[in-house]
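re: that chain from earlier
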Amino acid sequence: MLTALIAATVLALAGPAVTSRPQDPSAAAPVEPPAAAAPEGKTVSPLVIAPQAPAPAPDLKKYLLVCHDEPVLGSLFPKQVCATQAQRKERRDIDQAEVRRWQALRPGKSN
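^ sequence. v structure.
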């Protein structure tokens, strides 16, 4: 059954088969276009392909998530925080700037 189905599919994809000969003998022979004369034995067109520099590989470290546990004030359970390295660097820079700002506002600090 399966082989009959496969055979029918192959025959359907092959297209209609010609079983009878054409009446006109000139129609039986396909007409070929005249071959272009190759200059001095060259058979390939003089196409020059310039090499291209390979595209730089994307830096996958930008998109790599790094997870770590941070303690939460007033809780015994740490909180898991996941961020890319760029996001962690940005958060660290903002936190350091905020600490510097608060330390500069301390009362009684002498300059």
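The chain is about 35% helix and 10% strand.
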